[in-house]
Amino acid sequence: MSFLKNSFTINAPAKVNLFLKVLGKRRNGFHNIETVFQTISLYDKIYIYPSKDFIVSCPSINQEDNLVYKGGILLMDYVKKKKGARIVLQKNIPIASGLGGGSSDTASCLLGLNEFWDLGLSKKELKALGRMLGADVPYFIDGGTRLGEGIGTKLKKLPSIPKCYFVLVVFDFMLVTKEVYEKFKIKNSKLKIENIILAIKNGDLYGIAKNLHNDLESVVIKNHPEIEEVKNILIKEGALNALMSGSGPTVFGIVDDKRKVERIMDKLISSNIKALVTEPV
What we know:
The chain is α+β, with helices and mostly antiparallel strands. The protein has helices spanning 67-79, 101-116, 123-131, 137-142, 177-183, 193-201, 205-210, 217-223, 226-236, 258-270; strands at residues 2-4, 7-25, 31-49, 54-57, 85-90, 145-149, 154-157, 165-169, 213-214, 241-244, 251-255, 275-278. The chain folds into 2 domains: 2-157, Ribosomal Protein S5, domain 2 (2-Layer Sandwich), CATH 3.30.230; 165-278, 2-Layer Sandwich (Alpha-Beta Plaits). The chain has 10 helices and 12 strands. Strands 1, 2, 3, 4, 5, 6, 7 and 9 form an 8-stranded mixed β-sheet that branches. It has a 4-stranded antiparallel β-sheet with strand order 10-11-8-12, with helices on one face. Strand 2 and strand 3 form a beta hairpin. Helix 1 (67-79) runs parallel beside helix 2 and helix 2 (101-116) crosses helix 3 (123-131). The protein is globular. The two termini are 15 Å apart. The relative contact order is 0.17. The model has no long low-confidence stretch (mean pLDDT 94).
């Protein structure tokens, strides 16, 4: 977060899920999961300026539908004070792509407005507010490498993963998270999250790559086989492994060497596949 003449600039990072297992459905419609979140170096830009009224501007999202706007209103309700700010949201993270852009923007604005309005709220309070806005919002209050349980809001810090690269492949279609989860049929899987957690704790990048997993892939690939095709290209060209992030459709390949990244990008570009390179943050 940077400051300039009473204005703030915030980088809101995207995330990938290194592991995602769906355990069951709650009565309220939410699903219990086990996941490992990882923030990456792809950012939305958020600018906060002084204003008498509270305004959120983003060309691709109506103000009333924007979680950032809802977060600001919730924050004012919580402190029982009417505040003003003009927020300009510059989207770089694709919408409805499995990268958590909306949740990250919301968490970043809760943090930014807490400072901008000098509210003095703790991260615990901001996370509690975040849970009211979206299951991934509390995670983005801290970011980094974290275990998520329950509906993803029970969080535990994990060691940072070793230096590597994430080659992201972005598709032209969007997916609705709720619809993807609804199509998933719960099954007893022998895959255990403990394996990837152990690899993370040991700083074992190859063990992390070996244990990448996402239950929701099978649902999405049925209607979008291109996701499986892209995964195969990434692995064939040098990625240690590849996975769909969250509810999709974005796919990432985990790569251990810059030269391999260049080879993978050359192949994707020559195949007219939209991709970008990021790193864990």
